[in-house]
């Protein structure tokens, strides 16, 4: 890992995939933003509660196709610790949603442990959900339960789409996953970047930071550019919280 002038770690894992880490203060006019005219970018709003607000605005680091935007300072260090502690108390081996049955099933593509805490049980999760709704402009009802994930060394999440196939029965639970937000809760010693192979991008886990991206194209179909992976953790551990947002109210 190296760090830019503000101490934000940037990845050196790959020479072909530029890591996100440099800040685009004037992102609206940037070449990167100009490449995404078809997708409305997720712009920052005033964000309450668990997100840093007021005196310490979130910092937009990069925007790319599929409205991908990487952010620093979405969560305070205390928020991160609280979320990790909730995860620690509830961890079990990670599963994926079976597209046909909608059930959670074990799968070799995910080598990690996960927790699915109930929002009603933890005030921090309610504040987080409200902050995400405000940041995205998408009603809180569309959010699936937050998922907290833990990877040990060697742990990874192989390339996959978060959106479901067009005929998946789980689409009845609120349509497809239109947006993913991955929040990074700790600093990974080595590895653990979120990679977007079709975009040639990797996002380094910056504690308190996160990455938003769209999973669907304008026709509501699975967007090929949304393919992504959690690269293997080479050293240390990795904690994230993933928020999937459906097209309609999640049931
Ligand atoms: O671990 C990562 O960086 C990716 C996680 C992910 O893709 C997911 O939770 O859907
Ligand atoms: Fe994913």
Give structural attributes.
Fe2OG dioxygenase domain-containing protein; 8-stranded antiparallel β-sheet; binds 2-oxoglutaric acid; 251 residues; Jelly Rolls; disordered N terminus; 3 helices; vitamin c; 29% strand; 5-stranded mixed β-sheet; 13% helix; single chain; metal-binding; binds fe (ii) ion
Helices and strands in order:
Layout: E1 2-3, E2 9-10, E3 19-20, H1 31-34, E4 59-64, E5 68-72, H2 77-90, E6 92-93, E7 95-97, E8 104-106, E9 113-115, H3 123-136, E10 147-151, E11 157-160, E12 177-184, E13 190-191, E14 194-196, E15 201-203, E16 210-214, E17 228-230, E18 233-235, E19 238-246
Parallel strand pairs: 3-15
Antiparallel strand pairs: 1-2, 4-5, 5-16, 6-9, 7-8, 9-10, 10-19, 11-17, 12-16, 12-19, 13-18, 14-15, 14-17
Bound molecules: 2-oxoglutaric acid and fe (ii) ion.
The site of 2-oxoglutaric acid has 9 residues, from strand 17 and strand 19.
What is the helix fraction of residues, given as a range?
10-25%
Outline type: globular
**Strand fraction:** 25-35%
- Using the CA coordinates, give the radius of gyration: 17 Å
CATH topology-level fold name: Jelly Rolls
Instruction: Give the bound compounds.
Output: 2-oxoglutaric acid, fe (ii) ion
Largest sheet, in brief, is: 8 strands, antiparallel
- Helix/strand-derived category reads alpha+beta
Order of helix and strand elements from N to C terminus: EEEHEEHEEEEHEEEEEEEEEE
* Biggest sheet: strand arrangement: 4-5-16-12-19-10-9-6
Query: How many angstroms does the end-to-end distance come to?
Result: 41 Å
Organism: Acidithiobacillus marinus
Protein name: Fe2OG dioxygenase domain-containing protein
Keywords: Dioxygenase, Iron, Metal-binding, Oxidoreductase, Vitamin C
Biased composition (Low complexity): 7-21
């Amino acid at each position: 890992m190296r760090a830019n002038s503000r101490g934000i770690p940037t990845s050196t894992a790959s020479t072909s995939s530029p890591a996100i880490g440099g800040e685009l203060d004037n992102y609206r006019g940037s070449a990167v933003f100009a490449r995404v005219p078809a997708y409305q970018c997720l712009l920052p709003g005033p964000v309450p509660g668990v997100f840093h607000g007021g005196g310490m605005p979130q910092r937009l680091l990069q925007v790319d196709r599929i409205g991908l935007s990487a952010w620093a300072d979405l969560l305070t260090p205390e928020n991160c610790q609280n979320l990790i502690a909730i995860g620690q108390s509830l961890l079990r081996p990670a599963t994926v949603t079976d597209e046909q049955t909608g059930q959670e099933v074990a799968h070799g593509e995910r080598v990690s442990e996960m927790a699915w805490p109930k929002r009603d049980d933890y005030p921090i999760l309610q504040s987080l959900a409200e902050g995400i709704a405000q940041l995205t402009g998408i009603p809180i009802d569309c959010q699936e339960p937050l998922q907290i994930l833990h990877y040990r060394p060697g742990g990874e999440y192989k390339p996959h789409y978060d959106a479901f196939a067009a005929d998946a029965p789980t689409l009845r639970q609120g349509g497809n996953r239109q947006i993913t937000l991955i929040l990074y809760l700790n600093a990974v010693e080595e590895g653990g970047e979120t990679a977007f192979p079709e975009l040639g991008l990797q996002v380094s886990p910056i504690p308190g930071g996160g990455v938003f991206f769209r999973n669907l194209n304008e026709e509501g179909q699975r967007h090929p550019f949304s393919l992504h992976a959690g690269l293997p953790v080479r050293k240390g551990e990795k904690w994230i919280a993933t928020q999937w947002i459906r097209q309609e109210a999640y049931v």
